[in-house]
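RETRY 2/3 - previous attempt timed out on the joint model. Re-submitting the same 535-residue input unchanged.
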Amino acid sequence: MASSLSVKKTRLILGVMNRSLHLSSSLKSQESEKLENKKESSLDSEEFRVYEIKGLKKVSFVRRPERWSKRFPPPRYRTMPTDQDWTDVWPTASTFKWSAVPFPVRQGYVENSSENEGVIPSKYANLELMKGPNFLHLTPAHVKKHCKAIKHFCTQWPEGLDTDEQCQKHFPLESVTSDYVFAGPSLTDDRARVASIKFKLTDLELDNHARDKFIRLVGDRYDPDTGDVVFESNRCPLKSQNLEYVKFILTAVYFESWKRESWEQQKELSDMEQYVWDQNKSSKTCVSLLSDIKARDMASGDEQGKLSYLSEKEVDASVVSDLPEVQQYKEAVENLFNDGESIETLNTYRMAVEKLLNLKLDV
Amino acid sequence: MSVIMLQTQGFCRLKTSLSHTWQTSRWISSTASLCKNRKSGVPKITPFRTKQLTYEEAIPPSRMNVRKGWLSFNTGNLHEEKRAAQTTFEDFLVRRFLTGTWHRSLTSEVVIKRRHNTIVLSFLVSMERMLPRQVYFLQGYSETMLSGWLKMPVKIELQTVASQRDMIFKKI
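RETRY 2/3 succeeded.
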């Protein structure tokens, strides 16, 4: 059995070699010589091949000459002096460079000892450190240098603009435009054409009617909580055109709100959204009452019940409305009508009336 | 390959002569295979743990942003931002170009960062087969070619490693 197997194997090898003969013509002569030699040795001697036990016979290897190995200069951080200027090493924002960073740093996650011999990867050949941004270009020394360089171009902050309120007062109109820069071949962006202006409604010179009309015209562009009006436009193709357009809107709405159309005269007291003391009967009654009281005071000559705040001059509507007692009464009445009756509004109304009429109630 | 095939056939023939119950079609499977243990981005373990992996390859995509960071940094996917598709395609183009240009020397993936309209490429280059002057040439060449194609300034901030072997993190 064993012999038949070995014979079959030999035949098989011969068959393989025969096939390989057809592969190349240049090797044909060499191959055929070898083949003949082998045939002779195997057929003529009629001996089994000697089985060679591996490692029993010494085999001499011819060592290949070692390749010239590259020698790399030491990384930069090895030759850095300790008192160097870091801003010269790392002048601008740049990807993490392991060879230029003098401190040891590691990043990565190691699950077990099969990964990186159980050690967190160091900075050498570490792609993770190169991914994130770093702040090695923004050390205090860098910032100091930047400030020193920029200081040449700085000017004094203008006087009288120390607080936000002062800025708001002197520059009431705020215009907002945006520029977009992104990683693309074109610098243009259609969102950049949008322009808007913002201002406080109180900065405009408006009377009651004009203010009311202005708010109605601008609609939800007015925010009653902050008192800001914002006009925004994107209808023109250019930013400057949109900016001009919103300024035109402001002008147009302003002058439109000052106009009184004929149909606006038909608005009566009952059409008013809010109670306005000056337009109501209460103000006229107040003036007539105060003039009456003054006339009686003059006649009686009694000092105790006299209204001391009334001046010696004649009492008319314009003088009366400027008096602080009357102003207080006006506010109290308006609050009572507009905010509704509550303990606070009623109390302020009572105080105002007491002050107005110089009443001394001993309750 | 042909020798191996022949040996395999011979072995089969041999076995057939010994016992006739041998099925020669044992490797052909007509049923659909269920690849339940194959996932994209997760390399398969070799029998003798000879496959060498870098840190980037060793961490599966499921651990993204936990154990490893992204390779592309841009604002394309933010709300109401444009050019998401173009950005992705450009990244693909850049990676293909650099793989070919730094052939057999590009030892890591390419990190593409977009700051304003500048594209910053950072990667690791093995110095096994490179001379310093070749690296300088290829850096300038890649920057010039990519800047021309993408119409954006491209900066390459590469670093060198001595050998590809330094990148090995794990063997599976």
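Chain A has four domains: 2-45, 86-148, 164-266, 277-357. Closing ticket.
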